[in-house]
Amino acid sequence: MQRTHTRTTASPNLPPIMIDLAATPTTCSQHETRFGTRDAPRTTQLLIEAGCTERQYWRDLWRYRELFYFLAWRDLLVRYKQTFVGVSWSLIRPFLTMIVLTVVFGKLGKMPSGGLPYPLLVFCGMLPWQFFSTAMAESGNSLVMNSNLISKVYFPRLVITVSSVITSFVDFLISAAFLVVLMIWYRYAPPAAVLFLPFFVLLAFGASLGVGLWIGALMVQYRDFRFIVPFIVQFGLYISPVGFQSSVVPERFRLLYALNPMVGVIDGFRWCLLGAQNSIYWTGLAVAVIDVIVLVASGIWYFRKTEQTFADVI
Amino acid sequence: MLKAPSTTPAKPNPAITIENLGKRYTIGHQQAKGDGMRHAIEGAMRAPLAWLRSRRQEKLQQVDFWALKDVSFQIKQGEVVGIIGRNGAGKSTLLKILSRITVPTEGRIRIDGRIASLLEVGTGFHQELTGRENIFLNGAILGMTRAEIIRKFDEIVEFSEIEEFLDTPVKRYSSGMYVRLAFAVAAHLEPEILLVDEVLAVGDAAFQKKCLGKMGSFAHSGRTVLFVSHNMEAVRSLCQRVVWLKEGRLHQDGKADEIVEDYFNSTFNELPFSCANSDYGLIIQKVVLKNDRGEESSQFRPGDDLVVEVSYNAQKRIEKPIIALGVLGINGSCFTSNMLLDGHRPDFLEGSGQITCTFRSIPLLPQSYTVKMIVRAANVRDLIISYQEVAYFSVVGDLAEYGYKGEYLNWASRSTHVVIPYEWQLPDGTTAMVSLSAPASTI
Predict the structure, then answer these.
(1) Best interface-test mutation with B: which of A2, A8, A70, A304 has the largest number of B CBs within 10 A?
(2) Domain finish residue from A42, A60, A78
(3) Residues ≥6 apart with Cβ < 8 Å to B85
(4) Is there a single domain that holds both residue B36 and residue B92?
(5) Which of A200, A233, A199 is nearest to A215 (CA)?
(6) How many contacts, defined by CB atoms under 8 Å, are there between A and B?
(7) Domain end: B205, B235, B267, which one?
(8) Which of A226, B135, B296, B371 is most enclosed, with most CB atoms within 10 A?
């Protein structure tokens, strides 16, 4: 590889920040510029300064975009190595839970199903819930699990947490295939509202990521969360409308109930997949959307704030 | 110090400019806080005001520790710089800041060029994955793109010499194979600036040499290398310049040979080694090295006598201890004096005294060496003093004076430590005597 020392100000690729730096050398600026294609000769400049948050962070995140894939790929590969039934585990788990919840809530609890096959109702709730709970648990643990990477190489740490959500998302897709089978079995065609499903998937993704960022960053400092997370997962299954419909919740508590972002997500899934019987509760949905936005934004904020000290405290 | 981007490429920027760099760690912080979060939450709930106040006080009580302080220097493009210092001198902290793993508390750094760091061989390797999978994973973690890895894949495999095991999980690899594969990936990064931390401490001698060779060729191709090591020979052979850190500050900066020598002399001055075993009541007061004139020294010439003098104080009577001394170079043990081997054990040690061992006309090539010592109890099994480094010395001298005239003398002399007298008999009838202990004699 050749090296070039020329810093061509005329280069169209030159980001304006470069000029900022040149004009005001006293300002806090940590940045990196690179031009040329990925494998071609390029000039890189980097300024590391005390007390400055990195401005080129998001550019770095883009540069390391392939690492999202590689880390998720690693986790998936590793997860089912030396298991007997392999990937089937991501079907067996929700399937068994579905049966238990159907029996407990449907048969024993005699919860209303609104004329729907109870297993279908449960599975539509299970799908986003399982995604949320595994994503939260895995992304919460992700930084500590990868502490060897954090203390030895640089890359934006967000990659670790986000890729563990992606890993759980792959499981979600596998379970979703099972839902299709289940719907065919019950000869149940989804309504037109199914087109809105991606929106609710995104909402579930956001909720998982937001919570995951918080827990992941907190876990670096406070390992207490290792005990808190399984508790949230267990508890959450019963306070979220997984085994029942949220319509069984008394009207005056519904707004309060909607503060749990998974209420909006699960209701949304049932609305999209199972149709009009589950009319959507718009206020609840709005609350869920705000919830998720706040979670993600504050999660990124806290993560970025503590990220620089990860290597020192982990 | 920052100039506007100039259009004149004539004068290359320094590769790395470090200004007043400081890194503070706060110690005692976590102990003061109790176990994790409970203390924090409990305190805050019980008495919010008192909690806030105590937090402020806690801040005052914390002990600050500066791992690095006021470090400034520049590294030019294409320079190969060694960073040396004792443990805790701030070497690794410096590399961690340069490679952006942690942030500095003070100061700033400007880096010009694509930078890659190698703080550990095999970072991110996963035990369950195969060699092939790990090449991709590790490459990506070190900052290579997928396309880059695919392009260099064959080269990496060839360098690592593990072709047949490419599809075996690395957990089944021998440690040698593991390290070879890991280094192969790292060796194919193509940064303009490379930071290396003590990676050569792993693997066998042959592998270490291969790594050094790769790093050498990397340096020769005009790239900038920062190399942290305790291995003075490696530093001296690879680097033109050495930065010596001491207690977080820049202590010396200059030509490799000079600084390494100063460093060696200082390790000599900082010692002599002492230690104690309270169970046996044995105190090793000091271990000093002397030359054949009885003067303390840390420098010897090939063929000199090396006297190791161990001063002890045995508060209890120690029956029939077994003492062994070893002289080691970077490639491992050179020779030993071992009472287990020769059977000359003292009947007992009691009170103060000295044991000396004289190694006659040491057949060592000019390099740096370590003396290690072990003291065993009479039953052989129990250790009174575990095997540890007790002294350092270097052998200096111009091999040409001893009749060595090989063309690649300096390079070849790194490959071994011990040379005993030998004699060549060549087809044309000439006989050549080679000896380190005697002056040159060629017939």
Answers:
(1) A70
(2) A60
(3) B91, B244, B245, B246, B251
(4) no
(5) A233
(6) 144
(7) B267
(8) B135
d(CA B201, CA B205): 10
Which CATH number belongs to the domain containing residue B212 in this structure?
3.40.50.300
**Nearest-angstrom CA–CA distance, A92 and A99:** 11
Check whether residue A174 and residue A102 sit in a common domain: yes
Q: CA A50, A55, A58, A64 torsion: positive or negative?
A: negative
Location of structure tokens 């443990």: B87
Neighbours of A22 (CB within 10 A): 15
Contact call for B100 and A154, based on CB within 8 A = yes
Q: Compute φ and ψ for B209, nearest 5 degrees.
A: -65, -40
- What value does the CA radius of gyration of chain A take, rounded to a whole number of Å? 23
pTM over 0.80: no
Residues contacting residue B299 through CB under 8 Å, at least 6 positions apart: B393, B394, B395, B396
Q: What CATH number does residue B325 fall under?
A: 2.70.50.60
Pair B334, B238 in one domain:
no
Distance from CA of B26 to the nearest CA of A (A): 10
How much of chain B, in percent, has pLDDT values that exceed 70? 82
Let me know if residue A161 belongs to a domain.
yes
Q: Give the pLDDT band of residue B131 (cuts 50, 70, 90).
A: very high
Same domain, B82 and B223: yes
Model pLDDT for residues B311-356, shown as the tens digit of each residue:
999 988 999 999 999 998 876 788 999 998 998 989 999 999 999 9
ipTM exceeds 0.90: no
Query: How many Cα atoms are found within 13 Å in the side-chain-facing hemisphere of B112?
Result: 20
Domain final position from B242, B267, B292: B267
Same domain? B96 vs B221: yes
User: Which residues from B are below 8 Å from A73, CB to CB?
Assistant: 137
Contacts of B329 (CB under 8 A, 6+ apart): B233, B364, B367, B368, B369, B370, B417
In a domain, B324, yes or no: yes
Q: Do the domain assignments include residue B400?
A: no
Same domain, A158 and A246: yes
Domain count, chain B: 3
Segment (H or E) for B356: strand B348-359
Please give, rounded to a whole number of angstroms, the shortest distance from the CA of A80 to a CA of chain B: 10
Sign of CA dihedral A15, A20, A25, A26: negative
Residue B425: C-alpha distances to residues B96, B405, B434, B440, B443 (Å):
55, 17, 11, 16, 11
Residues of chain A contacting residue B130, judged by C-beta atoms under 8 Å apart: none
> Are residues B327 and B210 part of one domain?
no
What range does the domain containing A45 cover?
Answer: 16-60
Residues whose CB falls within 8 Å of the CB of residue A83, separated by 6 or more in sequence, listed in order: A89
Domain holding B63, by residue range, is 16-72
Count how many domains chain A has: 2
Query: Could A50 and B22 be called an inter-chain contact, meaning their C-beta atoms sit closer than 8 Å?
Result: yes
Minimal CA separation from A5 to chain B, in Å:
6
A8, A25, A74 ranked by CB distance to B137: nearest: A74
Bridge partners, B242 (sequence order):
B82, B254
Counts of helices then strands in chain A (DSSP H, E): 13, 2
Q: Tens digit of pLDDT for each residue in B70-124? A: 999 999 988 889 998 876 788 888 998 998 888 898 898 998 888 888 887 778 8
- Phi, psi dihedral angles at B309 (to 5 degrees): -115, 120
Kindly state whether residues B93 and B165 are assigned to the same domain.
yes
Contact A48 B222 (CB under 8 A): no
Structure tokens at B7: 């259009």
Domain-located, residue A233:
yes
